[in-house]
Amino acid sequence: MTTTDGAPVHVTYAWRGTFTDDEVNALHAEAFGHAPADDDWTDQVARLSLGWVTARDDRGLVGFVNVPWDGRTHAFVVDTSVARRARRQGVGRRLLDVVREHAAAAGCEWLHVDFEDGLDTFYVDACGFTPTRAGLVRLR
């Protein structure tokens, strides 16, 4: 990764890395274009997830992805978030590489992801997911 002036920036990735709720709430808001929430990410991922991946540079959290699962063979990629300053530098792809490695090591056979139109280039082309049909029901 590099800064706007081209200087290299070191990013570290951690499976089940430490984070604060404020950090993830701010990153999620930036990534998905909404006001920061007051979500309890720490409790959520501890209770429901196989794991998560954090990415940090010298200024703080630049990437996060949550990996809930069914407790057996299916893991799910949700809330992939990359800070603006770190986009288009391979951070998202590396987050998902770490997810694949650890989900496979946990015995998962399948890694699922749902994504909006326009993200095919990232999830399919860059990360190797195969497009599949899926269904969705709006509940509220």
Q: State the name of the first-level CATH class.
A: Alpha Beta
CATH-defined fold name: Aminopeptidase
Q: Choose one word for the global shape.
A: globular
Helix content: 25-40%
CATH homologous superfamily grouping: Gcn5-related N-acetyltransferase (GNAT)
What class, by secondary structure content? alpha+beta
**Low-pLDDT residue spans:** none
Task: Using the 3D structure, state the CATH architecture.
Answer: 3-Layer(aba) Sandwich
DSSP strand (E) fraction? 25-35%
Radius of gyration: 15 Å
What count of domains describes the coordinates? 1
Largest sheet: 5 strands, mixed
- Termini gap: 40 Å
Question: What's the overall average pLDDT, rounded?
Answer: 92
By DSSP, the count of extended strands is 5
Q: Name the helix and strand elements from N-terminus to C-terminus, one letter apiece.
A: EHHEEEHEH
Strand order of the largest sheet: 1-2-3-4-5
Give the number of helices: 4
